[in-house]
Design goal:
The chain is built from no helices and eight strands. With about 120 residues, it is mainly beta. Strands 1, 2, 6 and 7 form a four-stranded mixed beta sheet that branches. Strands 3-4-5-8 form a four-stranded antiparallel beta sheet, with no helix packed on it. The radius of gyration is 21 Å and the shape is elongated.
Length: about 120
């Protein structure tokens, strides 16, 4: 049997993160992928509605509390393997209890439409 130890690092409770869920597909302009790149700007209205601006498009979402929270785990370096102790350790970095759900189609942002002369 394999034992896996999950522990919390530091004092107090872990950080609280928010999950962003988008319906559909996000394609980057470059072939490098989305990792490490800025996706867009996230704002909230005065009523607390999340608004995501991606390029020239705007998405309106809603805040949803998750039934079961997710734990963000980081694998720690395994020390000397022993027959009595566990070989793998994970540390809880953050908990995700809330998600921002954007399930509507993006709307184009149009500011000035020049008139034909």
């Amino acid at each position: 049997m394999v034992q896996i130890v999950v522990s919390s690092d530091g004092d107090g409770s872990p950080e609280s993160w928010v999950l962003v869920e988008l319906q559909g597909e996000v394609e980057p302009r470059q072939s490098g992928g989305l990792a490490g790149n800025l996706l867009g700007d996230l704002h909230y209205t005065q009523e607390g509605v999340p608004v995501l601006i991606v390029g020239h498009h705007i998405l309106y979402g809603k805040v949803v509390q998750l039934e079961k929270p997710f734990a963000v785990l980081v694998k720690q370096e395994a020390g000397e393997p022993s027959t009595t102790g566990p070989h793998t350790r994970y540390a809880v970095t953050a908990l995700i209890r809330t998600k921002l759900l954007f399930k509507t189609r993006p709307k184009p942002i149009i500011t000035n439409v020049p008139k034909k002369v």
